[in-house]
Amino acid sequence: MPDPRTHLVGPAAEAEIRRLTRRSLLVGGVATAVGAGALAALRYGPDEAGIPWFLRRVLEGNERLARATFSNRLAPEFPRARAAIPRVNGRYGMAETTDSASWTITLVRPDRHDAVLTLPALYGLPRSEMITELKCVEGWSEVVAWGGVRFSDFAAKFGPAPGQFDYVALATPDGGYYVGLDAASALHPQTLLCDTLNGEPLPAEHGGPLRLVIPVKYGVKNIKQIGRIEFTRKRPADYWAERGYDWYLGL
Amino acid sequence: MRLEAKHPRWVRYSHWLNVPVLFVMIWSGLMIYWAHDAHEIRIAGRVLFHFFPPGFYDALGLGFQLAQGMAWHFAFMWLFVLNGLFYVSYTFWSGEWRHLVPNRHTPYEALQVVLHDLKIRKAPLPPGKFNGAQRVAYTGVVLMGAGSVVTGLAIYKPTQLAWLTALCGGYQCARTIHFALTIGYVAFFVIHIAQVIRAGWNNARAMLTGYELAVETPETTHA
Lengths: 251, 223
What we know:
The complex is a heterodimer of chains A (251) and B (223).
Chain A: H1 10-44, E1 47-48, E2 51-52, H2 53-68, E3 104-108, E4 115-118, E5 127-135, E6 141-150, H3 151-158, E7 167-171, E8 178-182, H4 183-186, E9 192-197, E10 200-201, E11 211-213, E12 228-232
Parallel strand pairs in A: 3-12
Antiparallel strand pairs in A: 1-2, 3-4, 5-6, 6-9, 7-8, 7-12, 9-10, 9-11
Chain B: E1 2-5, H1 9-34, E2 40-43, E3 46-50, H2 56-60, H3 66-94, H4 97-100, H5 106-117, H6 132-156, H7 162-167, H8 171-199, H9 201-209, E4 211-214, H10 218-221
Antiparallel strand pairs in B: 1-4, 2-3
């Protein structure tokens, strides 16, 4: 389709480009004002758990997409020579020292009374070792050799029947730190209830006597010093999700 | 004088939408980078420049906002990807890509443009919608965008997309490339703005209106 404007010459062409420029600047100005106004309204408008509410909606949308496409494919493993000790990056809910002999875990299930487990309860489960990269939400990462039992084996033995729970909530004994997990991530074959670090008993500062290791999530979901495990239908509260972070944090 | 159609409407819209979107991506990206600002330029073990010097985050108000940064980044990534896909599809569908993608004359022409801009070459540049240097720059920046999306996905889902993370050289390597590309956008922006100012209002106005005022050639005078 030939453009009639390109037939304009001389003063007619100059008048037309002046008109087009005015129009473009007007349209661009209005679009900029509307866009900037909308962004400012969203940015300085009401927050929901630490971030603007519309960002919460987008993160929830991202989560739906991630959960719909989630697969049990494995996080890469690394040679033992690369395994190191991760940095200790937060002590919320943690005790300075812990005693594995007297350690108890409160188990909460929708279909039964609460139970209290001691660590020997896990000894019957098959052990698993893996050397995976722990990824902090801050951006650093560290290859670590973890050992323990699969959470899926634990759930099969102590949890409700499959399909009876959608989420798992874990907390430190004092409830000072708590995380929520979707069932699919919790049951991923590399999600461990971990009690060794690089072949040694897990030190208290790294979450001993028992922590979670979950390579399909950022480090903040890898809760240390587990004192409570709940299988639930309700989406659990999550310490960092209440402070502006995505609830799902899936990798 | 006559009017000459230059930039199609959808190219202009996509170009201008990219301005705020890329701004939010870089801004929120810096909020994320602050939490682990590990990159520096080293030569023979000596640190030449650390990204970023003390005071940088404070001056821009970027510190202590990791959660905020992640939320904006993972929202506006959709606009960045959709706008990029739209732009590339449109340039192919419209045939506009023929003016943008480098061809066999481009390397020589790009060199001539650089010599011209450094005032070493005195003769005027060959005519054409985009010169060789522009073809390299505008195609390059689209490829950089694709690189940001690929390395971004490798960082975003390093377990679900472990093959992609491996392809990027691992998790930390993907982060380094992702960061380097961002520095590349800033460099592109600085040169782009400088060149637009040098080229003058008639050229810049074409990205607003779509039209450029061209000096009449003898054929059109007698047309």
